[in-house]
């Protein structure tokens, strides 16, 4: 990948909302190409850096996972407010993915079942104020904030992620076609 004329490194932030980190693992699977990427970008808030809040001027946000609780909403809005381009990264971010399988169930009834005491006579649902409030459903990212690009796949392959990033970082409109474009 040729470095763009502008020597400023692009600031990239990544997060996992209601995801399994599989999309981040696939990202790391670009392997030695990470060194090429490191010449062009610097990571802001991300599991890669362990920075907890993104700074105000990010160029690119990669969002893994759907939106299942109040903290997810807060994090997602912060990324949207501080990023020029936001990408729904992987099936869970694009359409809710596996976590959205709970969407046809009643959350209250699920919690009651899971946290029933061993003798079944009562429930002990955790209610510590530190715990983020669960939403009634798991929402795709675009139902909460504006999304610039959707990158499907569970997870998108390392080659797909690389093609997407190199298109974007060198100023081309990302174009993912078969066989890199997958929805499973
Ligand atoms: Fe995990 Fe697949 Fe969701 Fe990515 S899309 S967070 S790999 S379940």
Describe the structure.
- By secondary structure, this protein is α/β, with parallel strands linked by helices.
- It has helices at residues 22-28, 33-40, 70-82, 91-95, 107-114, 158-169, and strands at residues 10-16, 41-43, 58-64, 67-69, 83-89, 134-139, 149-151.
- It has a domain at 10-101 and 134-169: NADH:ubiquinone oxidoreductase-like, 20kDa subunit (Rossmann fold, 3-Layer(aba) Sandwich), CATH 3.40.50.
- Strands 2-1-3-5-7 form a 5-stranded parallel β-sheet, with helices on both faces. A two-stranded antiparallel ribbon has the order 4-6.
- Iron/sulfur cluster (SF4) is lined by residues 19-20, 22-23, 64-65, 90-92, 97-98, 154-155.
Q: How are the SSEs ordered, and which strands pair?
A:
Blueprint: E1 10-16, H1 22-28, H2 33-40, E2 41-43, E3 58-64, E4 67-69, H3 70-82, E5 83-89, H4 91-95, H5 107-114, E6 134-139, E7 149-151, H6 158-169
The protein binds iron/sulfur cluster.
């Amino acid at each position: 990948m040729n470095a763009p004329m502008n020597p400023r490194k692009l600031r990239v932030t990544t997060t996992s909302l209601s995801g399994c980190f599989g999309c981040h693992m696939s990202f790391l699977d670009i392997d030695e190409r990470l060194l090429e990427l490191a010449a062009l970008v610097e990571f802001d808030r991300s599991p890669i850096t362990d920075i907890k809040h993104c700074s105000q001027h990010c160029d690119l946000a990669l969002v893994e996972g759907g939106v299942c609780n109040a903290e997810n909403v807060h994090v997602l809005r912060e990324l949207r407010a501080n990023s020029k381009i936001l990408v729904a990264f992987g099936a869970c971010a694009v359409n809710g993915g596996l976590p959205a399988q709970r969407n046809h169930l009643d959350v209250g009834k699920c919690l009651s079942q899971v946290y029933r005491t061993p003798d079944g006579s009562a429930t002990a649902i955790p209610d510590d104020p530190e715990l983020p409030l669960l939403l009634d459903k798991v929402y795709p990212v675009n139902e909460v904030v504006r999304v610039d690009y959707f990158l499907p796949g569970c997870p998108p392959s390392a080659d797909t992620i690389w093609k997407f990033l190199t298109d974007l970082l060198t100023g081309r409109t990302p174009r993912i076609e078969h066989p890199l474009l997958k929805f499973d």
